[in-house]
């Protein structure tokens, strides 16, 4: 017997719409070359997070040089975040499928926009030190670190 009530009770509620802005760990699922409404080809990257899917569009075959350059930089960041220094085919970088990356997403209307990608295990930058403008001779007179030099 198909028990719809039991199935829905055991299934977490799915939220539709964009993911909240922030960092997510994601697994690269697939790459597909697509054509935009303006007839420009782009590489569509599908990534899966624990909260849903994210798509990252890279305009690697755009007609404008500057747009292609930006897309190449984005693809390079994705490769490095996935642990690859180079790939065989930028139009189908299938060696990246299955790699885990950290993705910073922002909400843009009713969809997410990928802002950047990083390695999953990338260390956080150390906090900036704040130095006092007080006279250092007052404090150094009371400080002895037992270093012989």
Can you give a write-up of this model?
The chain has 149 residues and is α+β, with helices and mostly antiparallel strands. The chain has a domain at 22-119: OB fold (Dihydrolipoamide Acetyltransferase, E2P) (Beta Barrel). It has three helices and five strands, in the order αβββαββα. The chain has a five-stranded antiparallel sheet with strand order 3-2-1-4-5, with helices on one face. The longest helix is centred in the middle third of the chain and has 17 residues, at 65-81.
What's the β-strand tally?
5
Main β-sheet, in a few words?
A: 5 strands, antiparallel
CATH level-two architecture of the domain at 22-119:
Beta Barrel
Low-confidence stretches: 124-140
- Give the helix proportion (percent range): 10-25%
Mean pLDDT: 84
| Class based on secondary structure composition and strand pairing | alpha+beta
Instruction: Provide the β-strand percentage band.
Output: 25-35%
Q: How many angstroms does the end-to-end distance come to?
A: 82 Å
Q: From N to C, what is the helix and strand string?
A: HEEEHEEH
Give the count of helical stretches.
Answer: 3
**Integer-rounded radius of gyration:** 23 Å
Characterize the overall form: globular
- Quaternary state of the chains: single chain
Tell me the strand order in the biggest sheet: 3-2-1-4-5
The CATH topology of the domain at 22-119 is OB fold (Dihydrolipoamide Acetyltransferase, E2P)
CATH class of the domain at 22-119: Mainly Beta
